[in-house]
Amino acid sequence: MSVYKEVKKVNVIVLVLNLLVAFGKIIVGYAINSMSMEADGFHSLTDASSNIIGLIGVYLSYKPQDKEHPYGHRKIETLVTLVIAIMLFAICYEIFSAVMGRFNRPTTVEASIFGFLVMLITISINMFVAAFERHKGKELGSDFLISDSMHTSSDIYVSLSVILSLVFTRLDIQWADIIVALFIGLMIGRAGYKILCSGIKVLLDTAVIDADEIAALVEQQEGIKSCHKIRTRGKQDDISVDLHVLVDKDMHIYDAHKLADAIEAKLREEYSGITDVTIHIEPS
């Protein structure tokens, strides 16, 4: 099965689970007047929306290279992760707005046993989804799945805080619901910030592999006097490497070409994510 089909399969599974979790929290949260549970539910609904965006983005990113896009379309997936980050910031703002509204219109939360049960079930589902996405993301080299697993992991802590607020509410500490809703907003904002930083690094072509590390590896090759002007960019599963190597000025062009092939093979063996290597041969 192709990488795209595997990523798509994971996305569909996670989408269905996120929808179940989201509507469960929203319906029960509304029934018991728990703002924190409702906020957590809308957060999970945002997860589902990001899965839909992910399906579109991953489909486009795995299209083959063409004349207009000689390096492929993989950065589309990175752009999709930035959309997810923006969605997280938007839901963070909405939660803070709702908290301000609750200060003006206080309501009583009914912390029922059913509410606790729903939260425990959704936490179990989120734990499975986060581990599943993280494992598949690393296995398939998918930025989207890895970033979405980080997003889902934040849901677990958020849901635990909702349970804590229900406990305090049963002790007649009503303000706990507001405090936890604020905490949820901060957690969502934090997840968005981490995803945003990760995506920006790829778009700005931040170095992926340490240049000194590559130089040390290349200079072990017989016939290489030195290695310099090393540049790397891309993602962990789609790394492009450019470098210059210094060889004996009397080396035949055929031997120099074979040497460049040997260097490329060594780099690809050491770093499985390398997809493109450009080597410039210089005479000493």
Automatic annotation (TrEMBL):
Membrane-topology descriptor: Multi-pass membrane protein
Keyword terms of this UniProt record: Membrane, Transmembrane, Transmembrane helix, Transport
Primary localisation category: membrane
SUPFAM superfamilies: Cation efflux protein cytoplasmic domain-like, Cation efflux protein transmembrane domain-like
One Gene Ontology molecular-function label: ferrous iron transmembrane transporter activity
Domain Cation efflux protein cytoplasmic: 210-283
Any GO CC annotation of this UniProt entry: plasma membrane
Domain Cation efflux protein transmembrane: 13-204
Gene Ontology biological process terms from the UniProt entry: intracellular zinc ion homeostasis
Stored PANTHER family: MITOCHONDRIAL METAL TRANSPORTER 1-RELATED
Name listed for the protein in its UniProt record: Cation diffusion facilitator family transporter
